[in-house]
Amino acid sequence: MKQIRYSALNLVPIREGSNDREAIDEMIQLAQTLEKLSYERYWIAEHHNAPNLVSSATAILIQHALSNTNHMRIGSGGIMLPNHAPLVVAEQFGTLKTIYGDRLDLGLGRAPSTDMATANALRRDKHDGVYQFPDEVSQLIQYFGPDTKQGYVKAIPAVGTEVPLYILGSSTDSAHLAARKGLPYVFAGHFAPQQMKEALSIYRELFKPSEFLDEPYVMVCLNVVMANTSDEAMHLATTQSQMFAGILRGRMQKMQPPVRDIHSVLSPQEATMADTRIQQSLVGDKAAVKQQIRDFMRYYGDVDEIMGVSYIYDTEKQAQSYQYFKEAIDKLNAE
């Protein structure tokens, strides 16, 4: 098994009893904790019209995280291109690279990451960005490239900054694009694991070496809930179950504390969905999660990096979970 890197994704959720500012402060506290733990990178998502998340202005949150950390890579997981003009994205990230140096990642998604009414409000020209995604990725590659490859319109100060791009996906479509362009591929296994095996296989098989990569670079994003015992981890994971149930209901609520009996707050259908999602997550103590990662690799093939998402209500328990995640992978890497 190859050496695995570990990183983290944050959707900047608002905890019950908390507010927007406290959620952003917690985002920074977690970034600083992960930097001390030598995490590879820390990405921030983009979501709109979600009353339980504060991750709408992703570039601003990235700047805030960069200014409050020293060396860990900070990036987007991701910037959703249907919502933005590529020129503006290049200008923003080129400016960040100019200020903070080589600590910046630009993960790119092809979905608006919101409902259609909100998507229309974000792009008032009704630009069909989902279908333009491959062309817009090419535009970004050009904008970040050398002066000799620029056209009349330049993304200043992005020219020559070579901000690294990552293609995000939750289906097989983006796997083809990432492979064709020779870019790193990040699969969203934390919320859409159904096509993960096929998508990763497509990416590996069709990958073409490029100026960016000589060989495929595979990242998977997975839900991670770890504790001293597997029983405690399962208890903490009831927060995650409530988060996903809220999405299923179309009624997104703030992050809830864990409960003793998940059936007391979820319907039978929702509880079944929650059980399925936990089976597709890394949940348990260090020994259990080590084995789960081994099993994951046997089924999906080796990956280069696992990006953890931890919906844990108690921030100290969340930090502990990320510490245990690091320790589990460190032990696997040492074997």
TrEMBL record:
Its EC number is 1.14.14.3. One of its GO terms (molecular function) is alkanal monooxygenase (FMN-linked) activity. Keywords: Oxidoreductase. The keyword Oxidoreductase applies. It is an enzyme of class 1 (oxidoreductase). The keyword S-adenosyl-L-methionine does not apply. GO terms for cellular component: cytosol. Residues 18-296 form the Luciferase-like domain. Signal peptide: none annotated. To bacterial alkanal monooxygenase alpha and beta chains. PANTHER family: LUCIFERASE-LIKE MONOOXYGENASE. This is Luciferase family protein.
